[in-house]
Design goal:
This protein has 429 residues and is mostly helical. It has helices at residues 11-25, 28-36, 43-65, 77-88, 93-112, 115-122, 125-146, 166-183, 189-204, 236-263, 276-293, 304-309, 315-328, 332-336, 340-354, 366-382, 385-402, 411-428; strands spanning 71-73, 150-153, 157-160, 298-300. The chain is globular, with a radius of gyration of 21 Å.
């Protein structure tokens, strides 16, 4: 089915690659419920939804595209869901979930019509890099807040929290332990760091040990299953939220696919990814199904690179990851007992990983560097991924126009900039 011989790989190598990928991304089973529960959603049901969405997305990637890439609810997109749409804009989580569902449907249509590739190619590369970096800072900021390392301050907005408190010490310990493991190239460093911090939190009173067995049937999806709110589908706010979900997910998925595929030598002579349409279709369907389960946007994980580094070259690697997610369903108490102080290190270090594209930004051309910088800095300071993108895209178009460099702006960029102007008018006029 996966044509292992043609790809010069073996069953053993593919399975080991799948185990490696799962180890490096299993933290999402603890982190995603932790983030989305801030929106008022049931954390136990979120565990099941997260796991099922990961299974569906990764299986589709294995069977349709036959690539060694794993999928799950995306970091950054879940933060936008909880902290921007629900907490920041004041909408119910049902509204945000509806936006994710519509996003999945639109992505299916755009993928079939090959429009996703056209949109992606229209966005300047430096802006793409800055979006990833900005989301990284935003995620790290959220992690530090969740652990109490950074707290609110009436005078200075934020300041350092009580570094002597158990939760802060556990979080800092987790960062150090995980950092050491990463330095030694230990597989599953993020997951090991989370588990180590969780264990250290037991005697400190930070971790609540469940009274039930650690192995159990999966928590019910009932509290969040098919909980959509279609009453505000045709409103300006839904358009803005939906567009941002579409925009961020588009670059997250395509960027990951190209980056990991390049490392694995899967790109053709023209730099294109064969079966890209099938890979994008897998994430579109998974996002739609995931929203029905009750979780945020599903995307391809950059941690798939760890499995590729271990020799994974076919869909059998992804199939192995899906099987392991299936097994994880029965260990819900293990993942839901993990405190925010223990997941904070993963958020901070994932933020670091997402900062990597900064090195590719052209800082010598100010019409490129300024939009990139504004995108990066506005996201954490405004507590909004959407606002960072708005500042970056609009400043890019304005700077190019005012410096008489019209030819560097694609027609699609003008359309995107126009949509953001409409957003500002709706928000502030």
């Amino acid at each position: 089915m996966f044509d292992l011989e043609r790809h010069q790989t073996t069953v053993r190598r593919e399975i080991l690659a799948g185990i490696t990928t799962f180890m490096t991304m299993a933290y999402i089973l603890a982190v995603n419920p932790s983030i989305l529960s801030k929106a008022g959603m049931d954390i136990n049901a979120l565990f099941t939804a997260t796991t099922l969405a990961a299974i569906v997305g990764t299986l589709l990637m294995a069977v349709l595209a036959k690539y060694p890439f794993a999928q799950a609810p995306g970091m950054g997109l879940n933060a936008f869901f909880a902290y921007t749409v629900v907490i920041g804009m004041g909408y119910e989580w049902q509204f945000a979930l509806t936006a994710v569902f519509l996003e999945g449907i639109i992505f299916i249509v755009l993928t079939v019509a090959n429009i996703r590739e056209i949109i992606v190619n229209a966005i300047p590369m430096n802006v793409k890099h800055s979006i990833s970096a900005g989301i990284g800072l935003f995620i790290a900021f959220i992690g530090l807040q969740n652990a109490g390392v950074i707290v609110k301050d009436p005078a200075t907005l934020v300041h350092l929290g009580d570094v002597g408190s158990p939760a802060v010490l556990i979080a800092l310990l987790g960062i150090i332990v995980t950092g050491v493991l990463l330095a030694f190239r230990v597989k599953g460093a993020l997951l090991i760091g989370i588990l180590a911090a969780t264990a250290a939190g037991i005697p400190a009173g930070v971790t609540d040990v469940p009274e039930t067995r650690l192995i159990s049937t999966p928590p019910s999806l009932a509290p969040i299953f098919f909980k959509f709110d279609f009453s505000r589908v045709f409103t300006p706010d839904m358009l803005i939220v939906l567009f941002t979900f579409l925009f961020v997910d588009m670059f997250d998925t395509v960027g990951t696919l190209i980056g990991v595929a390049d490392k694995a030598g899967m790109l053709d002579e023209e730099g294109n990814l064969p079966r890209a349409k099938q890979a994008l279709f897998a994430d579109s369907v998974a996002t739609t199904v995931g929203s029905i389960f009750g979780t945020s946007t599903v995307t391809t994980y950059v941690e798939s690179a760890s499995g590729v580094a271990e020799g994974g070259r076919t869909g059998m690697t992804a199939f192995t990851v899906a099987v392991l997610f299936g097994a994880a369903l029965f260990f819900a108490p293990v993942f839901t007992m993990i405190p925010q102080a223990a997941t904070a290190p993963a958020l901070v270090l994932v933020g670091l990983f997402m900062l990597t594209p900064v090195k590719y930004i052209d800082l010598d051309d100010y019409t490129e560097a300024i939009p990139a910088f504004l995108t990066i800095i506005i996201m954490p300071l405004s507590y909004s991924i959407a606002e960072g993108i708005v500042f970056g895209m609009l400043s890019y178009v304005l700077l190019k126009v005012l410096t008489v460099r019209f030819r560097e702006i694609s027609w699609m960029m003008y359309i995107i900039a126009g949509l953001f102007v409409l957003k500002l008018i709706v928000d502030y006029v």
